[in-house]
Amino acid sequence: MADQVHFELVSPERLLFSANVAEIVIPGVEGDFAVLAGHSNLISTLRPGVIHILETGAQVTDRIFVEGGFAEVNAEGCTVLAERAARVADIDRNKAEQALADAREDLQDAKSEIDRAAAAQLVEIAEARIAALGTSTY
């Protein structure tokens, strides 16, 4: 267990993942970062992207798409509080592509700065979700 870190991924709906793992790769706003046993304490905001969970060695055993949120690493392990999250395998490509088309249309139709910012964020999330479908390993 000394070479493992406890990882929990929580969304508003439920606890999605809780286990001891070898490594977690997390999409931070300033770039991806890996968490291993003994990692320094940190708190980071997340950008839309994929969390890669490695339970043994360098083999990715699970991939979970997050729309954003926060990650905290401390002596007890790593906890991710995600705004929304879903296993990449559960993402429907057709729905994801439709969500991107809708978000782009909303961005084009936006009248105010607030509406443009909200639509731009939805475009970013939809593009990241589709990109997640195209990657199978870290």
Automatic annotation (TrEMBL):
Coiled coil: 86-120
GO molecular function, one term: proton-transporting ATP synthase activity, rotational mechanism
UniProt keywords, alphabetically: ATP synthesis, Cell membrane, CF(1), Coiled coil, Hydrogen ion transport, Ion transport, Membrane, Transport
GO cellular component annotations of the record: endomembrane system; plasma membrane; proton-transporting ATP synthase complex
Protein name according to UniProt: ATP synthase epsilon chain
Entry membrane topology: Peripheral membrane protein
A Pfam family it matches: ATP-synt_DE_N
Gene responsible for this protein: atpC
Sequence similarity: Belongs to the ATPase epsilon chain family.
Task performed by this protein: Produces ATP from ADP in the presence of a proton gradient across the membrane.
Subunit-level organization: F-type ATPases have 2 components, CF(1) - the catalytic core - and CF(0) - the membrane proton channel. CF(1) has five subunits: alpha(3), beta(3), gamma(1), delta(1), epsilon(1). CF(0) has three main subunits: a, b and c.
Keyword Transport: yes
